Amino acid sequence: MDRRSIGHLSRGVWLLLPLASLAAFAVVLQAPLYEPLPRLPLPKPAASARAVTINTNRTPSGVQRDRVLTLAMDVISARWKPEGDNDPEVPILAFAESGKAPSNPGPLIRVRVGTALAITITNRSDSVLVMHGVRAGSDAPRDTMEIAVGATRTVRYTLNKTGTYAYWAGFKGLSQGDRSWLDSQLNGVIVVDEPNARTDDHIFLISEWFLGYDDRRQVFEDVLVMNGKAFPHTQRLTLQQNDSVRFRVVNVTSIPHPMHLHGFYYRIEEVDGVRVPPSKQLLSNTDLLLEGSSEVLSFVPTTPGNWLFHCHFAFHVNEETSLTGSPRDSAEMNAQIAAQRAARSMPAGMAHAAGDAMSTHTMRGLVVLLQVTPAAGYAAPSMANARTIHLNVQRDPHSLPGGRDAFGFIEQKGDSAVKPNAISLPGPVLELVRGKPVRIVVSNHLEQPTSVHWHGLEIESFPDGVPNWSGMGSKVYTQIAPRDSFVAEFVPPRAGTFPYHSHFNDREQMISGMYGAIIVTDHPRDTTHDHVVVVGGGGPPVEHKSASLYALVNGSQSPKALHMFVGETHRLRIVSIHPDWPLRFTLRNDSTVAHWRAVAKDGADLPRTLATMRLARVVMGPGETSDFEFTPPAAGRWQLHVSNSESSGWQIVLPIKVEARPKAKAAVSRPR
Ligand SMILES: [Cu+2]
Description:
672 residues, mainly beta, Immunoglobulin-like, 3 domains, eight-stranded mixed beta sheet, seven-stranded mixed beta sheet, 47 strands, globular, binds copper (II) ion
């Protein structure tokens, strides 16, 4: 679980307001939705710009003869529709294989190891460009190549190192993540395969088109895409149950993305072109794919139905990450804003997954749909004798820091009715027994639809909680309407620590309290030695398109202390579910960082080779869980420091009081 460091998170959701302005906003903003900022007019493509085709990275480009791949590419001005046919079209520079249309991503370079590459690039743009990733896929150091306006340059080298790599180009002087819009889609993938490797894997390149305007007001337009398209216009994969799958995911944006797979665990087989030895491959269902990084993930879709692979930053799958509604001119802007407002006031019919013109909330951005076809003879597990849990979703007005409304869960026990507005922050720990069916009746007492996702549990698709998508065939789950309820029935197959959270309008509901922990065990937990730490949102951001500054640790900004005993082993189950931030955890006392043993990640036990003692520090993206064992070496005040991964951000301290256990009184014989 060693993390490479999270780099600077420079823009977009990461831009923060000065702290001094917060107090003023906190008083004013009580409405559930902040007023959208004006949208930025988008640049227009030149009349001569050619239309971009979408490259799904399934077909290698170039001409291969006698173990030499020859690829000639031009950089040209192009017009690109990152979303639907009726959505905005924007100008970009794009790679075009000579004689073909420009594509996004650029041409796929894919060869057997040992193939020579002759790549020729002609710069037909009117700016000097620098090509990066030159010699990626070889033992030679990475290089760059400057290409003057109108110039043609050729590079030849042998692709002698297996792995997944990116090539990219940008204006002179810019890093990969500094590129903003015109040069942001000059990206392509290089795959160097083992001699007999399967090549039917799925390659996804994540890029961002970003148009900034005014740092102070954080006005910007952006769209995040996978292989040149944003959801719901991304690819839809059809997979066969029990047929192994491999994803190659390349992130050329300026920020990490916590990529979450519903329903299944994946193994990370390769990072940045370097194989991870099988003994070091752990099971994950959510992992931070760092900026500028590539990963190869493999999994077996063992359960049929409809699933997702998506980024777990709520902002990156939210309507705000969309050019839809961005104006070309003021008349169009005004009409679109009016239409959006009209749509927002509609009470029902919200389409979360598949998208619907009249919906008030849809997923956008970094989402891919997966459909797993059942194998012959598939039968869902029996739900006979399921135990029932009643979970109510309610709103507690003005109860969050800053006076915002909390949305949250409360368990209804026995026959007594739950008090209106009462919620538990975080949601109640759902204690489930491995292999035993459970029926969770979720009743929605909000004025808006909701949905609940049991994150990371290897269950059937139907109860998985993705509106208008979870399920199979004609049996598809929709949502939980106001005053309606939904029965999620499943059998948790694995003991471990998992989050549960809203999967509808996450950017408002999850960040406002709709999250909690699920703990699956074989035996009841000894809660004096088994502690749950849930870190999630404490309210939505105070301004459009900014990150929320509010976080809660076990429901509070000054959480209650945990109690531990010297020399005894305690388990810490940490759930990271703040939808805006990767979180940094450090367990320490005044003088020193502690050591702990990592024992599980995302609910799956670590293999013995990875369950090691290490310095007690970890960075976790939203949706990740980690379990650690800590044996306090000394009495006193220990602390779990929780902060966002930016050094400039907030920090919350969870106190841990460590005491020596009072010795049992020795039997002393007394005179009578
Ligand atoms: Cu993301």
